[in-house]
Amino acid sequence: MHTQDRGESVITSYAQAPARTVTAGGVDYAYRELGPKGGIPVVFFVHLAATLDNWDPRIVDPIARHRHVITFDQPGVGASTGTVPDSVEAMADDALAFIDALGHDRIDVFSFSLGGMVAQALVVKRPELVRKLVLTGTGPKGGKDIDKVAGVTYYDILRAALTRSDPKEFLFFNRNAAGKSAGKAFVKRLEERTEDRDAPIKLRAMQTQLKAIKRWGRGAPDDLSAFTQPTLIANGDNDRMVPSVLSEDLHRRIKESELIIYSDSGHGGIFQHHREFAPVAVRFLGEDR
Asked: pTM, whole model, 2 decimals?
């Protein structure tokens, strides 16, 4: 059963989700929420160089039909104040401060890429907070070649600039016919929200995030066998940013986790295959009690 204020209609379209702020530890966190209130919320942890405007509505909206969804900007990102920390663990501390400020003592997590690293660090710090965990396009601390993400990122930003494309078309999708059209469609979907859009990420913020990812890649692995949350892991089979083998590594190390690898797709495999993936995520996250 969902609790909802009388007369308040439930917004289930991310394009229409109201922009809100909450203050914690001197930082004003920008966030959006949608879906029926009450029960355990699904908190979304976003990727490198991303703001609130970078979530694919084809994944958010189906989840928000059944669940209270919260997306947020980390400190120093988008419309949030503060500065970006240079470690994933400090990002997890900031996420905890944000969740505590909203008063939630139990959440489900949906994460992608850097967000999946932050989510893992958060579970290590406070395992009892997280009921279910979705890790997509991500890898474990100390994972092979994670420290090379910066090189791939700068190379693809340059390639995109030369062709006047969005860098995500190169970073997230294969450069074959299927990947190119999926990339263009994805970028177009991110433009569906026309009102009250987020502030773009600053270059300095992205550079600090890349430094944090490099430190994560070179860090000592966490003991993922201690994770008891039901965990869904997904990726494309040709992830150039966070190598696909790392999704398999996560699957091996997190007991009874589920793994989906989408063929002929890259880092953004869940976005390219959103028609197949969204129902799987909805089913996995299930009800909120």
From this structure: 0.96
